[in-house]
Amino acid sequence: MKFAASSRSVQGSGASRRLRRAGQVPAVVYGGNAEPQVIALDHNQIYHDLNKPAFHASILTMELDGKAQDVLVRAVQWHPYKQQVMHVDFQRVMAGEKITTRVPLNYLNGDQSPAVKLHSQVISHVAVDLEITCLPKNLPVEITVDLGGMEAGANMLLNQITLPAGVEYAGTEENPVLAAALVVGGAKAEDEGEEGESSEEA
Q1: CA-to-CA distance for 187 and 55, rounded, in angstroms?
Q2: N or C: which end of the chain has fewer CB within 10 A?
Q3: Which has more pLDDT, 14 or 146?
């Protein structure tokens, strides 16, 4: 994915306010073998780009003053109550250096699992993304989690899925739960009610 940026020489809160009034967004790009650089983005374009999940989990091509460089989105600051992007941080990406970032999880086949089809349970997506480390060329847009084999009351753990080639888990939790099959609240209450009636009849 590509987006355009322009360099700016003036910094400070006053300069940032002027940029925003002109329909632009102050931003910074850092990392790699260069010094941090302050830049400006077109607000309408970056607003729509940031609403695309892939924009947050892809190597982006930033066209800065006619020169292309690969970057990742690292932080986004939004206005407290307006639909306005206030500031964006980007990190330069070097081809031979590993990066650590979060990648969204794509859950499939949950409605075909025994937990749902045979036991009318619901599958809760405990994690929405996963922190990983890899070379830029191996960065996946998403990681697929197949829930088709989940049994009633079971958990889907990280070690039960296969990560894409060249991708390593980088989180702090040793083997996190990704999804869990749960009893629906109404069904549970109904079962308890039936048990209570049986006890009274006995």
Answers
A1: 40
A2: C
A3: 146
